[in-house]
Amino acid sequence: MLLLLAVLSGCSAKATGRPRARTDEARVTPPSGGLVYFRKLPHGPTDLWIQSLDGKTHHPLTSSGRVVLLPRNGFMPGPWGGAAISPEGRRVAYAEFEVEDASSPSTSRGPVGGWTALFVVNADGTARRKVVDLRQQPLPEGKVRAGSFIWSDDGRNLVYVLKAPSTKDDGWSCPHVTLQSVDVESGRVTPLSEAQPLSHVTLLGWAVARGEVSLYGACTPLPEVDSGITYPIPEGRFIVFRPGDGTSWQQRALAPSLSPRGTLVFIPSRPRSQAPPSLQRLESPEPTREIPLELPARYEARLAWLHHSPTALVSASPGAWPPGECDGAHPRQRILFRLDAETGLLHRVRDEASGLNVVAVSPDDRYVLVGLLTGESSVIFICGQVPLEALYLVSREDLESELSLDALRRRAVPLTPPRQWSSSGAFPEYVGWVR
């Protein structure tokens, strides 16, 4: 009888295509390393901190109080800007602003806005040094604003964005954006591009061997009219720029997500288009192959890439446009898929994932940062009681098993106190993993 039950149990588990739900509630054993995150005091300065993956210890990585907290573009996923972790996970680049008035450290004064200097520091706090100081470089005319920056995929350089006012005084033209790179060892700065009319620019990747910089850019918002109401939709574009010859390839897109190796881009939606979410292969000299995703009709999708295989976790929810007054105040219906990016096939992982926010996958692909519901606040707003969530570390095996969300939470490692449900913009202060 015991043998028969074991055989039947094994067959049942195999039929689902997912690991069986575990009955024990032993918590995940946290891996080594830590998480980099922004810590901003109320109405005060900002610094970077390191949090252990068991959630028990925190220590500062910076202490100047001048780390820049660049706001995210509303149409881009991911953490706040102002810091970037190197590809090998052992160094952190961060931006600071000059303070001329110590009593008012919240803004940068002078000809440069955003940030004025880039620093690099080891994840253990050693070998801190300045690699860029914009106050000591020739800059475009007018008030220049320094923005997004990323590491090259070989970890040797940083590329960053400079925005200068448009030469047209018509009140509508976008700023002129240029790209510059800095060699982290020598501090040598090299221009990468001529000025281009763009506004919101987020750098996504720099593949040195292919000579390609990938970025998201948006210019003047264009109106969308629905039922007599006008909604501004930015003319967002995913752009692959080749500094070597100045050529580029681009496609309309909102909130694109580049794979860790820079060979695939996920395009959730396109401005003024009903096209479904898709994957685009970035094949030189021009991307030609688009892989549509078989999602339920009118569903929106967000994606978290794995690092060692062309695979991703996809969170899909029914679309809501135009957004309602209470849209995002409560969890919507959500399905969690695992995506095979080579074929575009989606495998259902969780049919009920409404209270689950996937934030990021660990560098070894074994763990996932997720937001999980913990209850409801006693505060009641116009949209009702506010759900609360906290950030947890879970094993990917548990996440892709048949464990209920309650059981998953009991097995996970809590990393933050509960906070108000954040819909798709979950825990933007967490920059990433260090080793």
Question: Any chance you could write out the topology, listing elements then pairs?
Answer:
Blueprint: H1 2-16, E1 34-40, E2 46-52, E3 58-60, E4 83-85, E5 91-96, E6 112-113, E7 117-122, E8 129-133, E9 144-151, E10 157-164, E11 176-183, E12 189-191, E13 196-197, E14 200-207, E15 212-218, E16 222-226, E17 229-233, E18 237-242, E19 247-252, E20 257-258, E21 264-267, E22 278-281, E23 290-292, E24 299-305, E25 311-318, E26 335-340, E27 345-350, E28 356-361, E29 367-381, E30 384-395, H2 396-399, H3 405-411, E31 413-414, E32 419-420, E33 430-434
Parallel strand pairs: 6-9
Antiparallel strand pairs: 1-2, 1-33, 2-3, 4-5, 5-7, 7-8, 9-10, 10-11, 11-12, 11-13, 14-15, 15-18, 16-17, 18-19, 20-21, 21-22, 22-23, 24-25, 25-26, 26-27, 28-29, 29-30, 30-31, 30-32
Strand content: 35-45%
Describe the main β-sheet briefly: 6 strands, mixed
Structural class: mainly beta
**What's the shape?**
globular
What value does the average pLDDT take?
82
Key words describing this protein structure:
43% strand; mainly beta; 6% helix; 3 helices; five-stranded antiparallel β-sheet
Structural summary, described in words:
- The chain has 435 residues and is mainly beta.
- It has 3 helices and 33 strands.
- The protein has helices at 2-16, 396-399, 405-411; strands at 34-40, 46-52, 58-60, 83-85, 91-96, 112-113, 117-122, 129-133, 144-151, 157-164, 176-183, 189-191, 196-197, 200-207, 212-218, 222-226, 229-233, 237-242, 247-252, 257-258, 264-267, 278-281, 290-292, 299-305, 311-318, 335-340, 345-350, 356-361, 367-381, 384-395, 413-414, 419-420, 430-434.
- The strands form 8 sheets. Strands 6, 9, 10, 11, 12 and 13 form a 6-stranded mixed beta sheet that branches.
- A hairpin with a 5-residue loop joins strand 28 and strand 29.
- The radius of gyration is 23 Å and the shape is globular.
- 36% of the residues are buried.
